[in-house]
Design a protein that fits this description.
hydrolase; hydrolase activity, hydrolyzing O-glycosyl compounds; Glyco_hydro_2; alpha+beta; signal
Length: 799
């Protein structure tokens, strides 16, 4: 079957479904939109515009301007339009457009008339278009606006970009006029021996038909039917309960077993609507002043945070990119993810259900303080949308009501604790009314810690305050103080490829016992300000935090900040401008050294990793041993240097650093080959090899740049700048920013916020690179790299 015929056949099939009298259909509308960057609120003016451009969804107009080198980013409105062909309209059907996410406010016009609107990004909404469509072509116009608006959360003072656009999938949905509007699934009783499941269905029945029936069927993970029931429908809501499901296959983080529940609505015994959901049987508990239990067993929470964005596309990620993030988090061994600081794409929750990741889902009340009545209404509406839409996901255990809420108020008296607590209590009550089965939480608003079920104070030991060695004392204090305490957010920035033989720890400079983060950092001495941002330091910091958490039997667990580097308007001065570089991976998801520290404590699949694959050029005095750490989850590891074994070591969870997998290595001049071989208890072996070029003479002051290029597999070039001294030695201590520019023959891969995708970047051990895309003219590429120190160097790349 050729591709053209295949697409036509699928289209015809969908049209048949659209015009049928039963079941509901859902068609993706991501392709073939037009986009207009114009803030007019006048539909006629937008229709007359001539500068529309073609694109596919998802899309944001801030994909690159957020991370370019110009201050600020576009906070304004734009238009989208699409021709929607509906050959036949069934009068017994209702039609709607479903937006998975459109940021921040949205108005939808169909055939010149306003069909509906939505306030707030990050969560889905439906627009009923039944009254506005006609047979044949329909004109869909959508105005999306991410303008600064203090009455809509999150606050612009948050440490992330508020991307504008239709940032997620859009669907055309058709349903029979009598249909299932929503089902809510709860599991009132769950144990290893038996379980129950309750399904509350909301039915739309505009003509008050009397002959409707609802059938619910439950199948186990292997597809075998375990329960089924049919009832007559007489009210707007119908409830069906299945009792005594024997020996349920439980959902947990190791075996995320999912049952399939199907609800079918029939009229005169003919099925008119049918929807399916996944069900997970699990129960959980936060012990008072103690650990967390899942299905009756203690589970140490091993978590990270995830921002929804990616290099080159911002928040407009594909489903494949969402899944790649979640799989990488799971492969690292995490069992928990905090979705920061807003609800995320539906595929993320689906991934967490299927992979076995517990979820902290968060209302984006992030900074900005308490607002006015309009603000409160918008905020409550968003919380209700979040809970109702994400209710059925077994992975979700926490509804977070906010983060750092009273920081940096947008409204007068916005940090008033009495007013904030009154509204927080409203949100807490609303959350428990909508969903009595899950916990509520907040982070770092101490005055409201008693209102919610679970509280996270701020502990940034070794970064924004104090030394990481104070971590045990911090968690011991808070375990006693808060009934249900979890630690969300810890870590620090690291610049890929930057290393130090002696990372700055702040000893004798920073007060060791502090661990609280200050709102304003101007008067606080901390590692974030004085540190070297080396990968080595962050490896040590994370290793210590995990050393503490993994050896504390009464600790609930912690949640590292953040999984990937992410873009932020608040950090133009960072090593990669406008990037928060606290990720365990770069903005493209490529692991840093720190990723392997977590993997060594948490992952199941055997591996070894020699610290560090981005540290292959080193220097130091002759006959001065260097400590080499190997991060591995293997029972035993052997390290060899230049063919000579340095001995086998037993991994010991109580030892720091690297669980005792460290060796002193006397590097030889020139090339050194290190090989680590790990052996599991079952006898399986894995290995890692690292080549290090070592020199005994220290570089002098940098005097110039050397530019070179390497052709990549994708046909692009990697242009690298090296800072050298008078003896032509690479200056491993040179860290100033340099600026790349392509003069002719191509263009730089810029505005990516990655180690090879930023025209301005601080050097890492005297090195910086950028990817360059040839323009196809088959002419030489001309590059410059410059800064105040070197004025400028030139490179010509022949095709």
């Amino acid at each position: 079957m050729n591709k053209t015929f295949s697409i036509f056949a699928l289209f015809v099939l969908f049209q048949i479904c659209l015009s049928s009298s039963f079941a509901q259909t859902k068609m993706n509308l991501n392709d073939n939109w037009l986009y207009l960057e114009n803030h007019t609120s006048n539909l006629n003016e937008a229709q007359k515009a001539s500068n529309w451009v073609s694109l596919n969804l998802p899309h944001t107009w801030n994909a690159e301007d957020a991370t370019d080198l110009m201050p600020g980013y576009r906070r304004d409105a734009s238009w989208y339009q699409k021709k929607l062909n509906i050959p036949k309209i069934d009068q017994n059907q209702v039609y709607s457009l479903y937006f998975e996410g459109s940021n921040v406010t949205t108005k939808v016009y169909v055939n010149g008339k306003e069909a509906g609107s939505h306030i707030g990004g990050y969560i889905g909404f439906s627009i009923d278009i039944t009254k506005f469509i006609k047979e044949g072509n329909n004109d869909i116009f959508v105005r999306v606006d991410n303008s600064y608006d203090i009455e809509i959360i999150p606050s612009q003072k948050s440490d992330f970009f508020i991307y504008g656009g239709i940032t997620r999938d859009v669907w055309l949905v058709s349903k029979y006029k009598n249909h299932i509007d929503n089902i809510k699934i709860t599991t009132p009783e769950v144990s290893a021996k038996k379980a129950s499941v309750q399904i509350v269905s909301t039915i739309i029945n505009p003509d008050n038909a009397k002959d409707l029936s609802l059938t619910i069927t439950l199948k186990n993970p292997k597809g075998k039917k375990v329960a089924s029931k049919t009832i007559s429908v007489s009210d707007k809501t119908s409830t069906i309960t299945f009792e005594n499901i024997k020996n349920p296959e439980l959902w947990d983080t190791e075996k995320p077993n999912l049952y399939k529940l199907t609800a079918s609505l029939s009229e005169k015994n003919q099925i008119k609507d049918s929807i399916s959901e996944k069900v997970g049987f699990r129960w959980f508990e936060f012990k008072d002043h103690g650990p967390f239990y899942l299905n009756g067993k203690r589970l140490l929470i091993r978590g990270t945070h995830r921002h929804e964005e990616q290099a080159g596309v911002g928040a407009a990620m594909t489903n494949e990119q969402h899944w790649a993030d979640m799989k990488s988090i799971k492969e690292m061994g995490a069992n928990f993810v905090r979705l920061a600081h807003y609800p995320q794409d539906p595929e993320v929750y689906k991934a967490c259900d299927e992979l076995g990741l517990l979820v902290w889902d968060e209302l984006p009340w992030c900074r900005g303080g308490i607002g006015n009545e309009v603000w409160k209404t918008n905020t409550k509406n968003m919380l209700e949308e979040i809970i109702n839409q994400n209710y059925n996901h077994p992975s979700i255990i926490i509804w977070s009501l906010g983060n750092e809420m009273n920081w940096l108020p947008d409204f007068p008296d916005g940090d008033n604790a009495e007013k904030t607590n009154a509204f927080l209590t409203e949100l807490n009550d609303l959350s428990h009314k909508l969903d009595p089965t899950r916990k509520t939480a907040i982070r770092k608003y101490y005055e409201g810690s008693h209102i919610v079920d679970v509280f996270s104070p701020s502990i940034w030991s070794g970064w924004y305050s104090g030394s990481y060695k104070s971590y045990q004392k911090a968690i011991d204090v808070y375990k006693k103080e808060y009934k249900h305490f979890i630690h969300a957010e810890y870590g620090g920035d690291s610049h890929v490829g930057r290393h130090s033989e002696n990372p700055i720890t702040g000893e004798n400079i920073i007060k060791a016992e502090g661990w609280e983060e200050a709102i304003v950092q101007t008067k606080v001495a901390n590692i974030a300000q004085i540190g070297d941002w080396s990968e080595n330091y962050i490896v040590d910091l994370f290793d210590w935090h995990l050393h503490i958490s993994e050896n504390d039997p009464t600790f609930v667990g912690n949640v590292q900040w953040a999984f990937k580097d992410f873009a932020t308007p608040l950090r133009p001065e960072d090593d990669i401008p406008y990037m928060n570089q606290k990720g365990l991976t770069d903005r493209n998801g490529v692991p840093k050294d720190a990723y392997y520290v977590f993997k060594s404590y948490w992952a199941k699949e055997p591996f070894t990793y020699i610290e560090s694959h981005t540290w292959t050029e080193r220097q130091g005095p002759e006959n001065t041993p260097r400590t080499i750490s190997v991060f591995s989850n293997c029972d035993k590891v052997t390290l060899s240097h230049n063919g000579k074994s340095l001995g086998e070591k037993q991994r010991n969870l109580t030892l720091y650093p690297a669980n005792g997998l460290t060796w002193d290595v006397n590097f030889a001049k020139g090339e050194n080959v290190l090989i680590a071989i790990g052996k599991t208890k079952e006898g399986k072996t894995v290995s890692d090899t690292l080549k290090v070029n070592y020199r005994f003479n220290k570089n002098d002051t940098a005097v110039s740049l050397q530019l070179s290029s390497k052709k990549l597999k994708n046909g692009n070039y990697l242009v690298t700048a090296i800072a050298v001294d008078n003896n032509n030695l690479r200056c491993l201590d040179y860290e100033a920013s340099i600026y790349f520019q392509c003069l002719k023959g191509g263009k730089t891969l810029k505005n990516q916020g990655t180690p090879t995708g930023s025209e301005s970047i601080r050097m890492a051990n005297g090195k910086a690179s950028i990817e360059v895309i040839p323009d196809g003219s088959n002419t030489p590429i001309e590059m410059t790299a410059l800064n105040q120190s070197f004025k400028g160097e030139y490179l010509r790349i022949e095709p």
